[in-house]
Design a protein that fits this description.
The protein has about 230 residues and is of the alpha+beta class. The chain is built from 8 helices and 8 strands. It has helices at about 60-75, 80-95, 115-125, 125-130, 165-175, 180-190, 195-200, 220-225; strands spanning about 20-25, 35, 45-50, 55, 105-110, 110-115, 135-140, 145-150. The protein is globular and about 45 Å long. The termini are far apart.
Length: about 230
């Protein structure tokens, strides 16, 4: 069994590549905009409607470069540590802005929050992920276990990140730079945090952890209010 994570009990659909397509936004045909949506693996570029502008979310690019960033900026960044860093990045950013950074969904597994679709993709990366990051399981502890080794193949790019997102990634890297996987699991298991609410309090093991759980009840209305610009 891997030292990084346990094999899931649930069967999930593997990420698949999708062909390029297009999306015509609703509204007056004279002012309609045609966006070419280039799909990469299971993460298409999404068009978000703001109150005054159309915003294109680069979730896929930000996921890949967040992986590169954490692999460079932290020690012993295996599967468990990577998953927990991404979870903190997405949920802390959601609590501040009402939006995640990578667009991943996280599920309440025994070892903590897990982005199930990324868990699957590590075994068979999409072309863009494979070109950017190399994943390799290496034997440790005299071959009794394995650990995922993450090796970036391209430099980190901050192109699609906001200043807030970069600052949060830097803060997380500093906070957990030397943390072991066990420390990361413990950090996500604290009482009344989203994983604990789903896994223990609600008993919904291996189920989706709603982003809204990142906020206190009195914060939700403010956090989920529409925003016209990216933070």
């Amino acid at each position: 069994m891997s030292a990084d994570t346990q094999k899931p009990l649930l069967t999930r659909e593997k990420a698949r590549s999708s062909p390029a397509g297009s999306l015509k936004l609703p509204g007056d045909s004279r002012n309609a905009i045609l966006f070419e949506i280039r799909h990469s693996s299971a993460f298409p570029v999404r068009v978000q409607r703001g109150t005054s502008a159309m915003l294109i979310s680069h979730d896929r690019e930000k996921l890949i470069h967040a992986i590169i960033f954490f692999a460079h900026e932290t020690r012993k960044c295996g599967k468990v540590k990577l998953f927990k860093l991404l979870y903190f990045l997405d949920f802390e950013h959601f609590k501040a802005t009402g939006r995640s950074v990578t667009g991943l969904d996280y599920f309440a597994w025994q070892m903590g929050p897990v982005p199930a679709i990324l868990f699957d993709e590590i075994e068979a990366p999409g072309p863009d992920m494979a070109a950017a990051v190399h994943f390799e399981e290496r034997a440790i502890r005299q071959g009794r276990q394995t650990m995922l080794v993450i090796t970036p193949q391209i430099p980190f790019s901050s192109q699609h990140f906001s200043r807030r997102e970069i600052q949060l990634m830097e803060d997380l890297a500093q906070r957990y730079r030397d943390a072991e996987s066990e420390d990361m699991v413990e950090a996500t298991h604290l009482e009344n945090l989203p994983w604990d609410k789903v896994y223990h309090q609600q008993g919904r093991r291996q189920q989706l952890i709603p982003y809204e759980l990142a906020a206190r009840p009195d914060e939700k209305e403010t956090i989920l209010a529409p925003r016209a610009t990216l933070c």
